[in-house]
Design brief:
Blueprint (H helix, E strand, L loop, with lengths): L1 E7 L5 E8 L13 E4 L5 H12 L8 E7 L5 H18 L3 E4 L1 H9 L5 E7 L3 E9 L12 E10 L10 E3 L6 H15 L22
Helix pairs in contact: 3-4
Length: 212
């Protein structure tokens, strides 16, 4: 049996999930309920390995056929840790690695029906916001599962500076968002989408607006 392992640490809560892939890579669900949330906060660096092993013991890692990781926006250190772990496993196991923005996972969970700005407030920094809505062409690499990123997350001084359109708070929910990540990875496997690990990097769009 081939497995997909998903990691999400774009908030104070770590999400770890495992699902099985059938022979065609189709989404087979998660009947064992192996999707958990770990409110680790700053202890993530010390507890990450143990948390992953609690969901999928290390002796079963050779069964991994695909990996997926949330890229952020989120805390740089926390997001980077799971991205580094996912990249390392993908390289060593020789398997695809899907990197998916955490805002896109929220948009899928919320089932947005129109282009909507998802907004995350940063203390003393402004807001990070991106626009998401239904994709016009169904599933493809640019419209994951029918939900498309219309504008990538970036830093704004305030929500009042956003272009016109509905706004909604970007609040991660674990393990629900890691379940969305699992589903997307299984969709990608079913579609035969190649996913090299090298381009997968954490998303941390908090440089001043307009600065290169």
């Amino acid at each position: 049996m081939s497995l997909v392992l998903a990691l999400h640490s774009s908030s104070e809560v770590l999400g770890v999930g495992v699902a099985s892939l059938d022979g065609q890579g189709a989404f087979a669900g998660n009947p064992a309920g192996r999707s958990q949330a770990f409110p680790l906060g700053r202890s993530l660096s010390n507890q990450l390995f143990n948390a992953v092993e609690a969901v999928l013991p290390a002796e079963q890692w050779p069964q991994i056929g695909r990996l997926a990781v949330a890229l952020g926006p989120g805390g740089f250190t926390g997001t980077r840790l799971t991205v580094v772990m996912a990249r390392t496993l993908a390289e060593q196991l020789g398997v695809p690695l899907d990197g998916v923005g955490s805002f896109l996972l929220i948009a899928r969970r919320l089932q947005l029906q129109q282009p909507t700005w998802l907004v995350q407030t940063l203390p003393r920094r402004g807001v990070v916001a991106g626009c998401y809505g239904p994709g016009a062409h169904g599933f493809n690499p640019d419209a994951w599962g029918g939900m498309e990123e219309w504008a990538a997350p970036k830093l704004y001084a305030s929500a009042s500076e956003l272009p016109a359109g509905p706004q909604q708070a970007a609040i991660p929910e674990l393990p629900a968002d890691v379940d969305e990540l699992l589903h997307l990875a299984c969709l990608a496997a079913s579609a035969g989408i190649e996913a090299p690990w090298q381009p997968v990097l954490p998303l941390y769009p908090t440089s001043p607006v307009g600065e290169v």
